[in-house]
Specification:
Number of strands: 0
Number of helices: 4
Radius of gyration: 36 Å
Shape: elongated
Largest sheet: none
Structural class: mainly alpha
C-alpha cells in the first residue's frame, strides 16, 4: 500500500471514529435529558395496579349481585329444557331450538 492509500485509510478511520463518538455523545445526552426516575416509574406502576384492582373489585361485586338474584320462572323453564336438549342428537337439538325460537317469536 502506498503512502497516499495509507493516509486515505487513516482519514476514513478517523472520520468513522469521530461519527461514532458523536453518536455516543448524542445517545448519552438524550439519556441524561430524559432520565427515568424510579419514583415516577414506581408511582405510575402503583397507580396502574390500583386501577386494575378497582376494576377487579367492581367485576366481582357485579358477579356477586347476579348470583344473589333468585331464579324466576323463566330460569326454571331453561333448567327444565336444558337437560333434554343435552340428551338429543345434534339434528334433534337444531330442530328443537328452531321450534322454541319460532314459538317465542310468534308469541311476541
Amino acid at each position: 500500500m502506498g503512502s497516499n492509500e495509507q493516509e486515505t485509510s487513516n482519514d476514513n478511520e478517523s472520520t468513522i471514529d469521530a461519527e461514532c463518538n458523536e453518536n455516543d455523545t448524542e445517545i448519552t445526552n438524550h439519556n441524561l435529558s430524559n432520565p427515568a426516575t424510579p419514583s415516577t416509574s414506581t408511582a405510575s406502576s402503583t397507580r396502574r395496579k390500583r386501577q386494575a384492582n378497582e376494576e377487579i373489585a367492581k367485576t366481582i361485586s357485579l358477579i356477586g349481585k347476579k348470583l344473589e338474584k333468585p331464579d324466576d320462572e323463566y330460569d326454571a323453564i331453561g333448567k327444565n329444557v336444558a337437560p333434554k336438549l343435552r340428551n338429543m342428537t345434534a339434528t334433534q337439538q337444531g330442530i328443537a331450538e328452531k321450534l322454541i325460537s319460532e314459538s317465542v317469536e310468534s308469541a311476541v
